[in-house]
């Protein structure tokens, strides 16, 4: 089967992309909603005699456990995704997220079952982490192997925007519940509502995914007996070290950019600059929406001018916008909303990250290569970035700005490297075309 790589996206492509983005958004919602209710969960799942600070530390420790489970879950699912099919693992990941999320909403609290309550909560978070570790790389591979080669950037950028929309959805649901329900009602059961919603929507997304088809590339490899004959991870680490390093640096850019600008900055604005919480959260929502559009634009751009120019131009733009944002808002708070929106859009260059990663690895090892690189890097940099930035903030209040500027420098360096690396464009194009045609 030879695919037309120059055609436009058709109805089936849009259906695949829509269902993948919807499921990804709901998975991210399920994974992130925990943090919006961390204070309530801490009060309910740990002894009341425990100091408040210790309860919060242990609650966030359970939240962080989800990140630690990502590499193992992602690598295991990717292993089978490369050997028995992308679609099966793509469906498994959303099931593995929906059921624990629903279970968290049903869990008895510490007052009912004692120490078993936080232990069960920890188990559910580990399962959620394993699920998200397989979902993101699986979604990128799935859509990239369905759409025409010259539309991979747009498809992956749109999918990344969908994943990010899950964070926005979690924020909106948390805001709605805290607005409509008094604190006492939330404490006595209202906190369970977002978990019920996440679990139910996840099961609906799982049902919808049954209409998706296995990727043409995997079917071709299976038909030509071109699937990996050895352990996929062993082959990735032995033969694709350079691709792993580039993909891990790309993931650092993606994870840390979003963590600092979208997740950490509202607290920074409130504590360092004294801006009211309601105003910072409004601006944060605007920045997140701008990020969604930025991801789509970056994906559209990378299809047309290539990864090297996209990251060179996009990283310079991100550096200028982020530096200006943190400096100018500190001088004049009235600039908060427009500048935060602009820097949110500039962070959207991360929408081009999966384009580079899906092109970096051969088809037989693609799922495993991306999953290992992405999840290990995300576990390291996604977890350490908040700690590192907070420590630097003791030395300078401009710590977030300097960190994002450093990320922009990494993005610029990667763009220059991709321009010099012959495998980054022409050779990979040929390899991908061969894999699609079964060569």
TrEMBL record:
Cellular localization per UniProt: Cell membrane
Residue ranges crossing the lipid bilayer per the database entry: 20-40, 60-80, 92-113, 119-142, 154-177, 189-208, 244-269, 275-298, 310-328, 340-360, 372-395, 401-418
Keyword annotations of the record: Cell membrane, Membrane, Symport, Transmembrane, Transmembrane helix, Transport
Ranges for domain Major facilitator superfamily (MFS) profile: 16-423
Membrane topology: Multi-pass membrane protein
Record InterPro entries: H+-coupled_symporters, MFS, MFS_dom, MFS_trans_sf
GO molecular-function terms, A-Z: symporter activity
UniProt superkingdom: Bacteria
One family name in Pfam for this protein: MFS_1
GO CC annotations on file: plasma membrane
PANTHER family according to UniProt: ALPHA-KETOGLUTARATE PERMEASE, MFS TRANSPORTER
Name of this protein: MFS transporter
């Amino acid at each position: 089967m030879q695919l037309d790589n120059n055609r436009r996206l058709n109805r089936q492509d849009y259906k695949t992309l829509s269902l993948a983005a919807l499921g990804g958004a709901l998975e991210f919602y399920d994974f992130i909603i925990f943090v919006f209710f961390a204070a309530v969960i801490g009060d309910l799942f740990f002894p009341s005699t425990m100091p408040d600070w210790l309860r919060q530390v242990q609650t966030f420790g359970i939240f962080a456990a989800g990140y630690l489970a990502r590499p193992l879950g992602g690598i295991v699912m990717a292993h089978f995704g490369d050997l028995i099919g992308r679609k099966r693992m793509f469906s498994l990941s959303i099931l593995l997220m929906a059921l624990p999320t629903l279970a968290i909403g049903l869990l008895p609290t510490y007052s009912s079952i004692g120490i078993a309550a936080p232990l069960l909560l920890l188990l559910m978070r580990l399962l959620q982490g394993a699920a998200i570790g397989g979902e993101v790389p699986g979604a990128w591979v799935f859509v990239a192997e369905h759409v025409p080669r010259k539309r991979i950037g747009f498809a992956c950028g749109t999918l990344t925007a969908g994943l990010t929309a899950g964070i926005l959805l979690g924020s909106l649901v948390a805001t709605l519940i805290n607005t409509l329900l008094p604190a006492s009602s939330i404490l006595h059961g209202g906190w369970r509502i977002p978990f019920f919603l996440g679990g139910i929507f996840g099961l609906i997304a799982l049902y919808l995914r049954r209409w998706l088809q296995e990727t043409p590339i995997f079917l071709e490899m299976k038909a030509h007996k071109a699937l990996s004959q050895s352990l996929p991870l062993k082959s990735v680490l032995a033969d694709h070290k350079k691709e792993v390093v580039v993909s891990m640096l790309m993931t650092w850019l993606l994870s840390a950019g979003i963590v600092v600008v979208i997740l950490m900055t509202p607290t920074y604005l409130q504590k360092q600059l004294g801006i009211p919480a309601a105003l910072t959260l409004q601006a944060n929502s605007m920045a997140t929406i701008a990020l969604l559009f930025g991801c789509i634009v970056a994906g559209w751009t990378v299809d047309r001018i290539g990864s090297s120019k996209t990251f060179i131009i996009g990283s310079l733009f991100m550096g200028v916008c982020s530096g200006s944002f943190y400096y100018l808002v500190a001088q004049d708070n009235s600039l908060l909303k427009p500048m935060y929106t602009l820097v949110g859009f500039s962070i959207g260059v991360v929408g081009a990250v999966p384009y580079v990663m899906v092109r970096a690895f051969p088809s037989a090892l693609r799922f495993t290569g991306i999953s290992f690189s992405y999840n290990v890097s995300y576990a390291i940099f996604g977890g350490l970035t908040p700690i590192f930035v907070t420590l630097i903030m003791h030395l300078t209040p401009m710590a977030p700005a300097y960190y994002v500027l450093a990320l922009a420098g990494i993005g610029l360096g990667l763009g220059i490297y991709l321009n010099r690396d012959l495998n980054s464009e022409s050779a990979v194009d040929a390899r991908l075309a061969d894999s699609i045609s079964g060569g």
